Amino acid sequence: MSDAPAPPLTAIPPDIKALADYERRAQAHMPPAAWTYLQEGTGDGVTLAANRAAFDRIGLVPRVLRDLRGATTHIELLGRTHAAPLLLAPVAYQRIAHPEGELATVRAATAMGIGMTVSTLASVTLEEIAAARQAAATELGTAPAPLWFQLYMQPGREASLALVRRAEAAGYEALMLTVDASIKRSGFTLPPGVEAANLRAARPTQTAQPLGRILFGTPLLDAAPRWEDLAWLRAQTRLPLLVKGIMAPDDALRALDHGADALVLSNHGGRVLDGMPAPIALLPAVAQAVAGRAPLLLDSGIRRGADIARALALGAAAVLVGRPQVHALAVAGMAGVAHALLILRTELELTMAQLGCPTVADLAPDRLLTAPTPVEGEPFRHSPRA
Amino acid sequence: MSDAPAPPLTAIPPDIKALADYERRAQAHMPPAAWTYLQEGTGDGVTLAANRAAFDRIGLVPRVLRDLRGATTHIELLGRTHAAPLLLAPVAYQRIAHPEGELATVRAATAMGIGMTVSTLASVTLEEIAAARQAAATELGTAPAPLWFQLYMQPGREASLALVRRAEAAGYEALMLTVDASIKRSGFTLPPGVEAANLRAARPTQTAQPLGRILFGTPLLDAAPRWEDLAWLRAQTRLPLLVKGIMAPDDALRALDHGADALVLSNHGGRVLDGMPAPIALLPAVAQAVAGRAPLLLDSGIRRGADIARALALGAAAVLVGRPQVHALAVAGMAGVAHALLILRTELELTMAQLGCPTVADLAPDRLLTAPTPVEGEPFRHSPRA
Amino acid sequence: MSDAPAPPLTAIPPDIKALADYERRAQAHMPPAAWTYLQEGTGDGVTLAANRAAFDRIGLVPRVLRDLRGATTHIELLGRTHAAPLLLAPVAYQRIAHPEGELATVRAATAMGIGMTVSTLASVTLEEIAAARQAAATELGTAPAPLWFQLYMQPGREASLALVRRAEAAGYEALMLTVDASIKRSGFTLPPGVEAANLRAARPTQTAQPLGRILFGTPLLDAAPRWEDLAWLRAQTRLPLLVKGIMAPDDALRALDHGADALVLSNHGGRVLDGMPAPIALLPAVAQAVAGRAPLLLDSGIRRGADIARALALGAAAVLVGRPQVHALAVAGMAGVAHALLILRTELELTMAQLGCPTVADLAPDRLLTAPTPVEGEPFRHSPRA
Amino acid sequence: MSDAPAPPLTAIPPDIKALADYERRAQAHMPPAAWTYLQEGTGDGVTLAANRAAFDRIGLVPRVLRDLRGATTHIELLGRTHAAPLLLAPVAYQRIAHPEGELATVRAATAMGIGMTVSTLASVTLEEIAAARQAAATELGTAPAPLWFQLYMQPGREASLALVRRAEAAGYEALMLTVDASIKRSGFTLPPGVEAANLRAARPTQTAQPLGRILFGTPLLDAAPRWEDLAWLRAQTRLPLLVKGIMAPDDALRALDHGADALVLSNHGGRVLDGMPAPIALLPAVAQAVAGRAPLLLDSGIRRGADIARALALGAAAVLVGRPQVHALAVAGMAGVAHALLILRTELELTMAQLGCPTVADLAPDRLLTAPTPVEGEPFRHSPRA
Questions:
Q1: Residue A21 DSSP code
Q2: Do C246 and B17 touch (CB under 8 A)?
Q3: Residue D4: is its pLDDT beyond 90?
Q4: Number of folded domains in chain B?
Q5: Is the pTM above the cut of 0.90?
Q6: Catalytic site residue from B268, B327, B339, B382
């Protein structure tokens, strides 16, 4: 049996009705090593499993007979309208899943009016992606969908700034600084022909730590970004600035104090530190701390429109999906990604209809019935014998 | 191997001792597509599983040596006596399970003195079902069992009113307006010869949403019933009016304020919105809000007489069973349904005897030991470092 | 392959180190129908599983370096000394497991100094069992171990009284009235040669309800014992009187008010009503209500010496084991039962040693770390939107 | 197929990236009986499973963009610096896993700068181990890593004292008195050529209780160490004294009052009493009681660097690993053990980096999100009917 993956399909199979159907089919369309790299969680996969389980523990309590005429999923976020509280999360090296890579993805996003976040580690240059968005919008006769650029801080500030300037010049509408994966282990080798296209002139920037090598005391830690780098970045650009990878309430406030316009709660899909809780488990505490000062986004574990509703009911302004876009891209390219986005949006609409919520602002905690959950810092009680 | 399902049995096999035994056997007696349509839950089946698990978490605490002479399962509900706190829930298209369809079911209900709720989407006309009830009662020399009509609001009020008038004329004793499934996804094609018999003159009325199609902004939402439609319906008929699909305490009060005489807590057997909690999980909160103003019924997950006792101990006046009637119908027709109802009633009696409850009014929370459960709107607590 | 069970072993296999090892081996030594009858729980087996799981959730917190010289498992109970806080629970028809039946069991109990409770439904007469105890004690040169008689109330008081008088005359030291199984379903047919030996002159007394037959309104309920029967029985005998099958605190107090000298918390090994909690889950509440007025015993789920320690730490004076005695009896007759009792006692001693408890009185809640558990009557909380 | 285990590997396979990979491979390198002896938990393995599950329930909450320059895992403990908050737990008879036994282990510990605790039941004499440490340090040009001696109290105080004096003379830096396993069951026979080398002149000292034999009332209990023996031992030596096997807060205080300099929370890897909670479940209560009077160490269940971080965040000063050192030793001898220690340390560093903790002192409860957990002595609540 050959290891060569099956080519992308040219039509969407009728049995694909949910994102899980794309996930089930995607493996056949990707090289085994790339599939493993995409799917695996770090460590023992505890966080990867928690990301899904956390959503399933949150019950949805319907409201009936509400007036749903004029219902809409639209939101206002960072100065413009989004068709739904949903964006594509930054995912690196999309050409490992499909020959067109990020170009197919941005066309799908444009067709669906859903925002896309382009990774620093995209396998197509950010300029080409921006051009593809414009071309698709023109062809479809629609407005271009939101396009954001995800930034990994580069070893030198000049290199980081160069990326920012390129994103500004190409018409990107926001910057998303990822802060959670600056130090991690990596064991994946890119297949031939796939590279970090934005960094052709530079060294790859994610400071991957070889497996089983001492970290502390090495120069790696000197290169890791710090709060002062966030403040510096804030001063360099007028683009809205999101910080991705925040999980703790105190970090959330600190990020806002350093100039962030919005935050993305994320455990990087369980890829960085096994044992991290699902972001949805920390969202209420972060929302309480932030108290409306800035919008909160969330990724890691979103697989259903109902998950979007849950996140919004607990305080998120929008969510992002990561792996699912790659599953759909591998299976059916641009059409697959567009279809996956349509499924999520339709599921969200059906959920909102059942919850009696004509707008996302109606999604509130009274629509939820949640399981008792962990308490930070109070792990065990002990009652000595009276 | 042929796909043709086995014909219904003419005698009840001796190994059938519980409703689960009917469920296990029923698949062989139904076309595969019909079986899937009957059994599946929406989404990932989280709600479907929760419906059963919620009951298993509620412990039953017995009371011994009580005087059980004269014990009875009878209840008074909506103006008449029921032999047990149990009714048949509305289930559409019963001829997909058995050639006699609803006619077999109503004969079984009559034989057992158990009420039946006829679906708007019955595969036999409501008039034929009413006539079959009368014929069976005459043949058996018993009083006719309660007969209710379940109503899906039709696109035009005239069409809805026509159904109400037909139900009134045919001797139906109550109307049950279903409000939870007016907007949902549907992918099942009726087999030849099975149709919505009550609606032959009209278009099918359940506004099924094709898979993967945008809902918001389409005319579908304009047709969905609203609170004002409930008030209108209330004004059209003197029949007792139940509203089915209520889950939230505020909706319960609102339904009563709009004229409902009783409420049915239901998540439609996990068929409408995956992620909904089991109705039994919300029953105490609804009962507390309603505070005795109206009887509460409950379906979704009832498979044992002990489940009936649990629901009543938490505030329900009666329960309904949906899928189990179809399982028994497919296996052994009228005899199967009657036997399934007998099993439930006998199990309820044994449970009441062990709990020391000679009447259903004795079923109270002190008979339960329940697991800690979810809290609406308080999903997570966070204690920052002191 | 023949259905004939393997004969009992004449030596204990060296791989038997725990009661679970007897259980694993016992099936081969029993007729299939008898094995099923012995092992099965009622309903879906939820209670059967809960009986074990409840113990596994109770953590044991050791104490080190305590002075264990003179440590002992002895207890005083109902006027005499027991070698350990452990008795054999009443188990009917033991000749279905071994040709010697209860005679082998009582010899094992005598050899180990462990009390035995003889069932009304024993397959050997109570007089023969008492004589076998005396003969074994004489042969072994030990004192006879405690011998109790379990009573099912007979349809007429004269029949009940006759059994009491026979037990008194044969030297039984206590009566245990079982109150939890007077009305239940039964589907087991005794094999040839096995009968309720004590009731040869009478009809079997357990009012078994045929499967799937209406109970309420039948004479069965008239025959069921009531609180007044307990008071009557109390007045008939000077033997200590235990009531078995109590689970609720209010029933416990009522039983004491009607003359019980001790109570046995039991769900009959999950054989009577599926959905009942494990007795250990209710023990603390019952102990709190009883407040030392009378000793509490407990059965259902005891499989380890550590379980005995857990029950005592939560307020039990002693425990009983049911099915395990039959497993050991089937595998190796008298030697098997004696060995099983030795295992339990040795495990208890090792547990007490690790917990730093030289006497059973030292077993207290401070030796436990328990999981959050159910609350009676407070199943769900609901916080409406503020 | 021969039962002979595979010889140790001479190079570390590239697929070994975690301690679990060593565990998976180790079975092939050990005799079956030795493997079973190493791996099994006592009883039903409830505690063995709890040791891992308890860690997985403790979520890790990251902090981002912290200044990690100069980060270090170093700690000060009992008067000297350790390279990481990690030591090798005492493990008996290491020559059953590898021909070099403890000599390979101490060389690995020295190479990694990680402390080793030598068991009383080592299969190489404590003097040989100390000499091997010195030789390895000289060869590698490093300082000798910490070397501690684990003591089982011997039947006579002279025998215990002789071991202490030998440890002092050989340069051991601390004594760790194990108090949790003085009375337990044992069924393992040492393979030929493996013995308790330190006790050649004496009888084996762990007072193993033969299976299924009565314990109470035998001389075994007289020989078990008591609090007064701890006080005596304290008076005999100036070495720092750790007491291992403490789980309860009151025992912790009592051990300090009797002269212990540090405590090791341990359930002996689930080998002593099934049903004991994981030490991590009791750590917060013990830490609260001890209130900084002495350092707390912990073993049982540590398999990941993240587990070390969890333990430290809840109050531990350091942790020990037991079985994992044997897995690595069996697979690849000295190189395996060194690699396993490197993995743990690297994982700890990555965890600290993600948690934003440049020093172990920064690991605090605010880095955790923990599940609701057991309460000692408050197992069940009961609310009688109002």
A1: H
A2: no
A3: no
A4: 1
A5: yes
A6: B268
